[in-house]
Design goal:
Layout (H helix, E strand, L loop, with lengths): L1 E6 L19 E2 L2 E2 H11 L4 E6 L5 H5 L8 E6 L5 H7 L9 E5 L2 E3 L3 H11 L3 E7 L7 E5 L5 E6 L10 E9 L15 H11 L4 E5 L4 E3 L3 H12 L14 E3 L4 E2 L4 E3 L2 E3 L4 E2 L4 E3 L2 E3 L4 E2 L4 E3 L2 E2 L4 E2 L4 E3 L2 E2 L4 E2 L4 E3 L2 E2 L4 E2 L10 E2 L4 E2 L6
Bound molecules: guanosine-5'-diphosphate-alpha-D-mannose and magnesium ion (MG).
Guanosine-5'-diphosphate-alpha-D-mannose (GDD) binds next to strand 1, strand 4, helix 3 and strand 11.
């Protein structure tokens, strides 16, 4: 079976991490997010994968034809973003049999193989995976009848409209003839376009509910949560089990006086200096330098980041090539790439710093 992964649209909710890279290339456990998704599909024997991109991204230069990771990748690129369904219509030439569609920002252990079995038994036009969430207002709410047939689809409902905690998990099995309902080269979505249209026309859509691990990593809070979950053994695929493991990459140097509490993942070519304290869950990307007495707690650091002496970083995300000067204090914040924080600077908790910014201490005037 072929799968289409949706890669694109707006990634503004993940800013400042996605000003200059697509959401799909954001690292998760030091590996591009999309690579995890491809491995997940591959585990379910889905190895013919089409990446439906809204813009030309750097994906192809990284993934190539996919052969080095054991899959076949094809690429389609929209002239202008076509929406979720329009993006699949744009890949129509590849889709002649039942196929799978995945939102490209979902990390899940959902059992696709079981979903395929259920779809092939019931033979509807579409089967939609459902997952329970605490706040359905950020997602597509789906109502079903006692037989599991979808009766209503309500994208981003208001709280007053919430009738269930089950939402669209962004994973669909579709019959190729549904493509006939999607206008070519026009912006059209599954959520507000195709699914409500199929329901209106009485076409069968079934739900496949699951309580497997599931998260949409499309906001900094969820991105951080995803890391904490994976490092503490949720999401069965990733090998962190005990919650206190420490993994250190090749050519990385850890000073003997550094204290590392797991779960912590350190990439290749890193230097962790004297008396540095890492309090997991922590992820440090390749090429990072963490100098004396710095403290990093529950944070994700991308590549080539430098923390000078006595920096304190807590519950934050720091993108590539940032430089945090001595004694700076960063908590509950997200730093885009190439940010410099001056010595002694204390960021307001909740800060979102755009790429390339130089943050200076506030001066009283
Ligand atoms: N190629 C392409 N073109 N991809 C797109 C486009 C587009 O124009 N627009 C969005 N996408 C991709 C996004 O990159 C993402 O992978 C996926 O489609 C869903 O878009 P989001 O912007 O992340 O939507 P959402 O999270 O608000 O809501 C969707 O996902 C929820 C589950 O996380 C909806 O499908 C909801 O119904 C669903 O509950
Ligand atoms: Mg999303």
């Amino acid at each position: 079976m072929k799968a289409v992964i949706l890669v694109g649209g707006e990634a503004t909710r993940l800013h400042p991490l996605t000003y200059n890279i697509p959401k799909a290339m954001v690292p998760v456990l030091n590996t591009p997010f999309l690579e995890h998704v491809v491995h997940y599909l591959s585990k379910h024997q889905i190895k013919d994968i089409i990446l439906a991109q809204s813009h030309l991204h750097s994906l192809q230069s990284y993934f190539g034809d996919g052969s080095h990771i054991g899959v076949k990748l094809s690429y389609v690129v929209e002239d202008a973003p076509l929406g979720t369904a329009g993006a699949v219509k744009n890949a129509e030439k590849y889709l002649h049999e039942t196929f799978l569609v995945l939102n490209g920002d979902i990390f899940t252990d959902l059992d696709i193989t079981a979903m395929i079995v259920s779809h092939l038994e019931r033979k509807p036009k579409a089967t939609i995976a459902l997952t329970p969430v605490d706040d359905p207002t950020s997602y597509g709410l789906i109502e079903t009848n006692a037989q599991g047939r979808v009766t209503r689809f309500l994208e981003k409902p208001k709280w007053s409209q919430v009738t269930t905690n089950m939402i669209n998990a962004g994973t669909y099995l579709l019959e190729p003839d549904v493509l006939n309902y999607i206008p070519p080269q026009a912006n059209f979505s599954f959520e507000r376009g195709l699914f409500p249209l199929l329901l209106e026309q009485g076409k069968p859509i079934y739900a496949c509910p699951s309580s497997a691990y599931w998260i949409d990593m499309g906001t900094p809070e969820k991105y951080l949560q995803l890391h904490k979950d994976l490092l503490t053994g949720k999401g069965s695929q990733y090998g962190f089990t005990s919650g206190d493991e420490v993994l250190i990459g090749d050519q990385s140097y850890i000073h003997p006086t550094a204290q590392i509490k797991g779960p912590t993942l350190i990439g290749n070519n890193c230097t962790i200096g004297q008396k540095v304290k890492l309090k997991g869950p922590v992820v440090i990307g390749s090429g990072c330098t963490i100098l004396e007495d710095a403290v990093i707690e529950e944070s994700i650091i991308w590549r080539n980041v430098r923390l000078e002496q006595h920096v304190s970083l807590k519950n934050s995300i720091v993108a590539d090539n940032c430089h945090l000067n001595a004694s700076s204090l960063i908590e509950d914040s997200v730093l885009g790439s190439n940010v410099t924080v001056a010595s002694g600077c204390k960021l307001e908790p909740g800060s979102r710093i755009s790429p390339g910014t130089i943050v200076e201490p506030k001066t009283d005037s």
